[in-house]
Amino acid sequence: MKVDIIGDVHGCYNELIDLFKELGYQISNGLPYHPEKRIPAFLGDITDRGPNSIKSIELVYRMVVTEKIAYYVPGNHCNKLYRYFLGNKVQVTHGLETTVAEFEALSDEKQNQIRDNFITLYEQADLYLVLPEVNAVIAHAGIRDDLIGRYDKEVRVFVLYGDITGDKHDDGRPVRRDWAQEHHSDRWIVYGHTPVRTPRIVNKTINIDTGCVFGNQLTAYRLPEEKLVSVPSNQPYIAEKFKYFD
Q1: What are the EC numbers (predicted)?
Q2: What is the 3-state secondary structure (H, E, C) of 122-188?
Q3: DSSP secondary-structure letter at 64?
């Protein structure tokens, strides 16, 4: 098995297509296929903030559910959109408003299709994926070693939001523990969630959310090669979005 793990897309559909091409995929009937049958794996947060969340949903749904040529784990933005589509009360803020605006511009028939497809994508997804063939675990916000193999509420919160303490920084961001410092196994933990200017490697963990939606890059991590591939963002650069563990 060879996989290409893709960081947070956040509606940056055009950059995602650019990344697939940079990775050597060929686009056929709107879907990327690799001549060596490499498998893309999405790290969640495929929507919100960026310009093309609906197209991103359509692509990931086709790849993961219809054609079964890709993997997907949900992120916190995926969870919020899922709850919105279920009709739960959620605040349409922090990027969800861009996805909702795109969604509301669609016909009723198209809305029903997108809603049903995303609910299916989310409900069939595992909280995280263990990929022994490439000695890796992928989870949106990471996962501690002692949580691997569990699927309870503590694990769900961790993989969606990180190792949060319950406190907040002055600007409203949650305070998170740097769980990667305590990772000591030889198995890769590949994650995203917190934007970083360059992929952050600590022990055998790697954060590949390089903030495409904030104007930096969209990044993939190739295994078993342990190779990083990035393409530049088309979005405006917002420097203050690149803060972590401060």
Answers
A1: 3.6.1.17
A2: HHCCCCCEEEHHHCEEECCCCCCHHHCCCCCHHHHHHHHHCCEEEEECCCCCEEECCHHHHCCCCCE
A3: I
103 touches 58 (CB < 8 A): no
Query: Residue 177 has what pLDDT?
Result: 81
Structure-block tokens of residue 82? 């899922």
CB 44 within 8 A of CB 79: no
Does the predicted TM-score (pTM) go above 0.85? yes
- Per residue in 182-195, pLDDT tens? 999 999 999 999 99
pLDDT tens per residue, range 59-70: 999 999 999 999
Instruction: Name the CA radius of gyration of the chain, rounded.
Output: 17
Within 8 A by CB and 6+ apart from 164, the residues are 157, 174, 175, 176, 177
